[in-house]
Amino acid sequence: MKKLFSSLLLLSCSILFPILTKALPKDTLPVRGFCIAAPTTGKLAPFLKFIREELAPRQINTLVLRVDFNYQFTSHPELRDADALSQAQVKELVKLCRQHNIRLIPQINLLGHQSWASHTTNFLRVYPDFDETPWVKMPEKYEWPNADGLYCKSYCPLHPGVHKIVFELVDEICDAFESTAFHAGMDEVFYLGEDKCPRCGGKDKAELFAGEVWKIRNHLAGKGRTLWIWGDRLLDGKTTGMGMWEASMNNTHRAIDMVPRDIMVCDWHYERPDKTPVYFASKGLQVITCPWRMPANAALQLKDMYNFRETATPEMKPRYQGMMQTVWSDAGQFLDEFYGQSKFKGDTVNTSANCFRAIFNK
């Protein structure tokens, strides 16, 4: 019965998508993107095959790879992952993407996401002085909610030593990927402007967030590169009812009126097809909409993006830049799911692979 129910759900998605997209305009979306963690060395070959046989035929023109410390940095070898990609392996990715006219954009999580569950990621593990909340100790067993309000740690944006290292990492990874843009993450920042922080305690959280965006943007602009960020911290979670994950509940949302206008906002909504691209575009920002695992929602988001572009004023239309599929498992797990090489537990309809197939047909 469960298998039959899953089959019926999948069938309904396959029926719904053509109905929703039948009348889509012939307008070409500037960004047809795919975002995933950079593959480990052992999964590089199958990932290159996936680019050739799946991304290219679907006319994907933008690939955001969440690299973080999965690269053999020479500027800061102490921050490398144990089995990090070499420069030669990155050049294989660069060459293949260039052959298929795919813009390759690396990401390192900046500001937030400096820890996950009970694990402190490389940056704060090696440089604990940069921690915004050093008094919050990592638990042996992570649970949410918790008394410390710990989701992910942040670095302190006002620490005098943080940006020298950050920008050395950013420059090296952008040079290695030969990229004209960099994705800084900056999503789900819960720790910012904490009262006990000796540098930013008591300061306006929106101003702190916007200041960090400007600092990163200005550094990139000096080298002819564009800044991409996730958009959730620029949305008011309380007024919209979107809550603390897909929007901000700690007053960073006012930063939307303070950040530079030439950044790219990656507007992710996974549970509902919220129409927030209109809000970002009306603020003068370029925006792409980002689904994850629900094909029916993603189809509506894609239809909305086409409609926004079709009905917009000449001033607004260029700000609606397109759509980017996001994947939140590692590349190896996604490839196993996509090619049916692993037994998927749980929901077999609402998956990132099904969502990708639905919105980007070959």
From TrEMBL:
Pfam families: Glyco_hydro_20. Belongs to the glycosyl hydrolase 20 family. Residues 1-23 form the signal peptide. GO terms for molecular function: beta-N-acetylhexosaminidase activity. This is beta-N-acetylhexosaminidase. Keywords: Hydrolase, Signal. Residues 82-292 form the Glycoside hydrolase family 20 catalytic domain. It comes from the Bacteria. Its EC number is 3.2.1.52. One of its GO terms (biological process) is carbohydrate metabolic process. The keyword Hydrolase applies. SUPFAM superfamilies: (Trans)glycosidases (SSF51445). GO terms for cellular component: membrane. It is an enzyme of class 3 (hydrolase). It catalyses: Hydrolysis of terminal non-reducing N-acetyl-D-hexosamine residues in N-acetyl-beta-D-hexosaminides.
